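Retro notes
What went well: the complex prediction finally ran end to end.
Inputs used:
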Amino acid sequence: MAEPDVKNGPEDVAEKLSKLTMGDSKVEADDDDFVDPWSVASKSATGIDYNKLIKKFGSSKIDDELVTRIEKITGKPAHHLLKRGVFFSHREMHGILNKVEQGKPFFLYTGRGPSSNSMHLGHLIPFVFTKWLQETFDVPLVIQMTDDEKFLWKDLKLDVAQKMAIDNVKDIIACGFDKEKTFIFKDTEYIGQSPAFYQNMLRVQKCVTFNQVRGIFGFGDSSNIGKIAFPSIQASPSFSSSFPQIFEGKKDIPCLIPCAIDQDPYFRMTRDVAPRLKYPKPALIHSTFFPALQGAQTKMSASDPLSSIFLTDTPNQIKNKINKYAFSGGGATLEEHQKNGGNCDVDIPYQYLTFFLEDDERLAQIKEDYSSGKMMTGEIKKTLIEVLQPIVKKHQERRKMITDDEIKEFMRPRKLKYDYSTKK
Amino acid sequence: MAEPDVKNGPEDVAEKLSKLTMGDSKVEADDDDFVDPWSVASKSATGIDYNKLIKKFGSSKIDDELVTRIEKITGKPAHHLLKRGVFFSHREMHGILNKVEQGKPFFLYTGRGPSSNSMHLGHLIPFVFTKWLQETFDVPLVIQMTDDEKFLWKDLKLDVAQKMAIDNVKDIIACGFDKEKTFIFKDTEYIGQSPAFYQNMLRVQKCVTFNQVRGIFGFGDSSNIGKIAFPSIQASPSFSSSFPQIFEGKKDIPCLIPCAIDQDPYFRMTRDVAPRLKYPKPALIHSTFFPALQGAQTKMSASDPLSSIFLTDTPNQIKNKINKYAFSGGGATLEEHQKNGGNCDVDIPYQYLTFFLEDDERLAQIKEDYSSGKMMTGEIKKTLIEVLQPIVKKHQERRKMITDDEIKEFMRPRKLKYDYSTKK
């Protein structure tokens, strides 16, 4: 899937703002924020207004009731990314929970558009949460690497996109997915290995006109024809029939897609099309965006090494980047900070801690101390450094252990360990 | 490939007339004829003006010099479809002959869009000629069945299109292709079996914009996105790298495409794109259209059983159709016919004989006798019936003998019998 990156928008953002519209939901032009699969822009220091986005996109807010229901059904505490509102929006999550209660199967689908050899911290978020979903619900997972998308959108050769995909697959495997229950595929290989997948692409393509993809994705007359057809490729893994080797030919196993909210347009389109193909609509669970080091209204770019912390950064690089570049919500002077306290809503070290510090009590304490001015900017940065350094180090250690054979096995079209026959 | 069928044009023909334009060649609006992959329309009783079409499309006329050169290089007499101008136009045929003289390899590519369970006589023409090319030049051949195209364009389900493709494959095999040198594939299967093919589709897609396919094919805002991307699928078999199993990974083996002239827009686009992919441009050899029984300016439709002779027709059906429906260029009365003679330019029995009566001398005699009024309409119809009945009968006998295993073998991605290493 595409990562948010303003520069890579296929068309002019202003032009898009005036014409975004899709199927059952209408996306209106807005003075503040702009979100689509290639562009995320906000004028506010606190970043995107996610409540507004829920209204615009026509999704549902994840409320306490839903979180409680998930905890009740799974018998496990909710993940901190769910409790803290990083995953904040959904479509038909209750439908998936109904299936679980009825003992019926579902599967997870997420993905990544490989855009650089190295992923940054923000790229981990959907995978960290997806891993939790997989463990908690004990379900199969498919992960799509859209190397074809990157080839079509960027000025790079196909083999470079493919190489990037494999580099990213290593980072994804390092998140700890269960090999027996996870199929990772890159489009440029799997589409050429699966007539069923290609046939679903065709079925989706037949239901979607140029008018529609122009409205949803802002494609124009000068867009290449690969881009225009691409939404069908991101839609197809939502349907269990695209993976006959996993789902034993079953066409009706519903899908839950954890992803950043910018990918929602693809799946609004998919949900529009699904009933016409007599397939279940995919359910979704959406995350907010991971902010750039420089603040929520700036863009985080994989091509700007100073805008984010990479999974390849050394402990020292992490320390220096946070100390030098992490946007602070603290007071301008010691005096001012002690008097007014820090602003957690814009403070990047605090924001990052909400993503990566699992200890709820400690996070609450930090918030209190920082907001009151008791904790200094240097201290909160130090805390973040101490949290991130071991996370990145462990990731690097796990990544280093991944063999070519392991990658091959994850990417081999095969049956996954999940017995559909025992399900009702 | 699409067969000419006015009804299946994706957009309004008049609208297309005003905007057809493509790459290096310009297709201007014309008062008389209209030709594109879905529409062939002529107001003249003699049908399309092919000399005008050559100018419009920017191809080259097949002249005596080219025919003589083919005979000289192959040491064999030219096929009657070539001598008689049924194959009348080409692109870079001399380039292919240069390769042959240099002892360098090339391959043949043709195809069919399966549109009904049964093919008619006209559908045989490109295959009859392709078989002769394969035998004469001793080269490998790939045949694309665009069942995906038919699914995207027509109101039918994917499995119906796939079934039609297999039915048509039987008729194609019955033409007598060499199993060891021929690979027949349907898109909905082969694309899902060949990462190399899909990757070439992507490469073509990246080079072609919506603007371009709108200009070439008349696609519009309400065209589905599968149609818009489809030209990349018909382009890809032009490149040897789409068939690594046949060409041992070689990317530079040139391709010769025998096809009806209405398919040329696909390959003008392909030739435009090829240099950017560093692939050789495909060469082409174009045929005229096979006229409908009712005359050259009417359309022949696979869905109208009376407009053509089907490969499933009985001897009696053939006889009755020709006697009842074949448009006659003879005089209105016996007296008038004896006085003015018949007009071979519009007479369908004579036209059909030029396609199917191999004996040059006999054909010339018939032309003389009919034009002079010595031969009656009933006689020329009888001659045609006597020529076609055994052709169709033999075809049916050969078709009946084709086993499922044989079809499987023709359609199995595999190495073909052709040794590239011995070629210079």
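What we learned: Chain B touches chain A at residues 148, 151-152, 158, 188-189, 191-199, 202-203, 205-211, 213-214, 219-229, 231-232 (CB under 8 Å).
What to try next: split runs per interface for comparison.
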